[in-house]
Amino acid sequence: MANAAAIGLSLRDLYLFNKGNLFHSYRTFGAHPIRLGDETGVRFTVWAPNAKQVRIVGSFNDWNGYQHEMELYGETGVWSLFVPSIGPGTVYKYEIQTIDGALLLKSDPYAFQSELRPSTASVVAEVFHFNWNDGDWHQRKLEDSPYHEAMLTYEVHLGSWRNWGKELFWTYEEMAGALVDYVVEMGYTHIELLPITEHPLDQSWGYQATGYYAPTSRYGTPEQLMHLVDRCHQRGIGVILDWVPGHFCKDDHGLREFDGMPIFEGKNWKLAEKPLWGTLAFDFSSTEVQSFLISNAIYWMDVFHIDGLRVDAVASMIDLHFDKPPELFTYNAFGGTENTDAIRFLKRLNETVFQYFPDALMIAEDSSSWPAVTSPTYMGGLGFNFKWNMGWMNDMLRYMALDPNDRMRHHNLITFSLVYAFSENFVLPLSHDEVVHGKRSLLNKMSGTYEQKFAQLRLFYGYWMTHPGKKLLFMGGEWGQFDEWKDAEALDWQLLEYRAHGSMHHYVKSLNHIYGEQPSLWERDCDPGGFEWIDVHNAAQSVIVFMRRGHASGEFMVVVCNFSYHHYSDYRIGVPESGEYRIVLHSEAVTFGGVLTDIPEVLYSKPAPWHGRPCSISLELPPLSIQLLVLAKGSLDRNDRLTTQH
Fold it and tell me: Facing residues of 388 across strands?
């Protein structure tokens, strides 16, 4: 066996990798610029257990691998070699000779940088010495609990938020200016990036990756991405990465049959095939694959300071039959359809992430009814701390598409979510998936005339913002983009010049800031005591009234929603305390695109019991509207006026 210590390799680390326990494997594998004695160069390390020989090829050796044959370290399946006199920027691949004599050219599974597509080679990069300036951010994270903090996420596809034209993308560094400033101005707390791991096809949006450790070169270098994250943190914005451990694409230069055999996808082709997406599932029973994937989650948090991961397609991971034809059905050892290996992997993933990053966000995008997704693993849960509430999203979009005259027969669509709202720690997603592939934009999902669509979207956003659960909105939704998302073009920013869209943009900004300023809307998202129905049964008028509570005494908000076409000039609601109630937001204010110019700043309760409450308020209830009321604290001054007034 070659001398591992001579090139800085630890045989113990290779043993841990084989056992599935090397959770910082990116510090061992891949291409690492190092100094050995008086020589500087790069140490290359790769796992290829079935290879007959592995060589390093690149421009530095005229792509002739016989000059740089790698050394195999015992039975670990790991090959390594130190190449002197090269450094960052070196382009390379692995030339793998299979057991049947074929030659494969493969990108490095642990490459920290890749060539810009359509080129597919890996690039040596130094990613461990960025000068971070986000210490204050990390200290605040340690002091706060995500369950009791505001979390309003702006979901972004970097290639189409802004660009200079077709395939002329803004860089990560350019985004660190305009995007971060915009997110702060709009009142969001987090950015969620659609997958930025290296991928060959733009139209996959990053969901079919080849380079799990390489930020896509479409938008620049790893260092530029670090700059983007660093500036987000300096401005108080968290960064979540959409992460795809469930499957990978089949491109020849990638992970598929990496050493001539299926080592990342496993030998059971029925289990590996993902026909709906044309991809391959990882083999979650492989200990080396576990080291690879869990290390990757740690890598983004350790090296790039990412605050959390939205784990894509959990349902497809835990269900052996998910979107598969009968000829590809497989069963677990107990005869069931649960992927027990994937379930064990997810639990181990979350346990490990929280071991190293206890303040991380691990968010499951899960469309199944699998129980206890956000419960700790020691209680039998999967161990995530949040889960997307797909049921709420589907019910509400179906409800908002109904003619308001028909809504009285479907009242349960707006109320059913509160039956299970606290069974998990939920995020309410209005994501990219809802505005593509013929589903129409959020604005265009609303029923009614042009004006009514805007009124309904304002009402829908208000209900979404006040419903228990953290929030996520896909870019463009904040001004009511009328067309579906077009991934190859920039968003329709020109719509802001039109009054209806500009007013919607102003409404969402105001709603966002009210959300951030009102602890009752987020402090008790995961606590049933943070929500109370005042009137849940008024299906005949399609009106609901409820209350959100914060931790402090008197910290509550009353929410009144009218989902009907009818105008009620004297609508009475019960309130929990007597006093003056301030309308902090009215969706029908003219400045938001509505029709009302004269909205009272305060409403006075009367000692008239109503809705089981000791006192009540009478208010005007326009059609398709929402009002947010809080108990006034002291007298109002000029700066504490109704949000909707000019």
Answer: 427
Asked if 459 contacts 563 with a C-beta cutoff of 8 angstroms, the reply is yes
Residues paired with residue 361 on neighbouring β-strands, in sequence order? 308
Q: What is the pLDDT of residue 284?
A: 98
Annotation says 570 is catalytic: no
Phi-psi region of 478 (alpha: psi -120 to 50; beta: other; left: phi over 0): alpha
Give 195's strand partners. none
Residue 295 three-state SS: helix
List 108, 155, 312, 535, catalytic entry? 312
CA distance 220 to 174: 10
**Looking at residue 1, what is its pLDDT?**
53
Structure tokens at 273: 């095939």
What percent of the chain is predicted at pLDDT more than 70? 98
* pLDDT for 635 beyond 60: no
Query: Dihedral, CA atoms, 116, 121, 126, 127, nearest 10 degrees?
Result: 60
Identify the band that residue 366 occupies on the pLDDT scale cut at 50, 70 and 90: very high
Q: What is the pLDDT of residue 633?
A: 73
Catalytic choice (259, 365, 434, 525): 365
Asked whether the beta carbons of 37 and 5 are under 8 A apart, the reply is no
Where residue 593 falls (left for φ over 0; alpha for ψ -120 to 50; beta otherwise) is left
User: Tell me, what DSSP letter sits at residue 33?
Assistant: E
CB of 240 within 8 A of CB of 363?
yes
If DSSP codes are grouped into helix, strand and coil, which group holds residue 388? strand
Helix (H) or strand (E) holding 30: strand 30-36
- Which pLDDT band, with edges at 50, 70 and 90, does 459 fall under? very high
User: 582 φ, ψ to 5°?
Assistant: -100, 130
Is pLDDT of 637 > 90? Answer: no
For every residue of 535-552, DSSP letters joined together read E---TTTTEEEEEEE-SS
pLDDT, position 634: 53
Under 8 Å CB-to-CB from 402, ≥6 apart: which residues? 410, 447
Yes or no: say if 162 and 178 are a contact pair by the CB < 8 Å rule: yes
* Rounded Cα distance, 235 and 171, in Å: 19
Unique residue bearing structure tokens 């997110």: 183
d(CA 81, CA 60): 15
Tell me, yes or no, if 365 is annotated catalytic. yes
Q: Report helix, strand or coil for 602.
A: strand
